[in-house]
């Protein structure tokens, strides 16, 4: 099995197709919507949650089975039906059109895998085994959930604001680099790991102001 190239894909307003209407398809639809994608679902039936999304026009739903026309103007495809031959056909047709396609529970038939992801706001930690052992990926994710709590997402948002300020106000590349390195150190991470979010935030802000004041 070939090695994969990990990326973080921007799906905001991108048209994505999910074929299938069961619980697995539901999870995929929700994850795509969370990233701002425009989701089209094709299936003879839907879970109650997907029916609710369709009734509220949160997704574009076509009742029926997969047709090649469903791929028109689509950026990314997820094959999530309960029929292997249908999923394989979807993948074949999508890849023939150079589309991104994931086959649920049978990833080698597509051209990308979906990793196990720990999300803490803008902080995302993805665990992949190149499709070899999703169970191992899930167990590692569960371990990381205990290590990295919601406070990491809060600090990342603060660091993002400061970084934006540095990039907008500091033109010297050397000074930028020094500032960016100064706002996060091992002690800040130790405070965060100990649950001292406010102290970690204070340390970041103080480090930023001290570095800005240096000639």
Automatic annotation (TrEMBL):
Presence of the UniProt keyword Electron transport in the record: no
Question: What keywords is this UniProt entry annotated with?
Answer: NAD, Oxidoreductase, Porphyrin biosynthesis
Per UniProt, residues of the Siroheme synthase central domain are 120-146
UniProt keyword Zinc-finger, yes or no: no
**Name of this chain's protein:** precorrin-2 dehydrogenase
What EC number(s) does this enzyme carry? 1.3.1.76
Q: Name one Pfam family in it.
A: CysG_dimeriser
Q: In which pathway does it act?
A: Porphyrin-containing compound metabolism; siroheme biosynthesis; sirohydrochlorin from precorrin-2: step 1/1
Question: What's a single GO BP term from this record?
Answer: siroheme biosynthetic process
GO molecular function per UniProt: ferrochelatase activity; precorrin-2 dehydrogenase activity
* Reaction(s) catalysed (UniProt annotation): precorrin-2 + NAD(+) = sirohydrochlorin + NADH + 2 H(+)
Q: Where is the Sirohaem synthase dimerisation domain?
A: 152-203
Q: What organism is the protein native to?
A: Desulfofundulus australicus DSM 11792
Q: Which domain of life is it from?
A: Bacteria
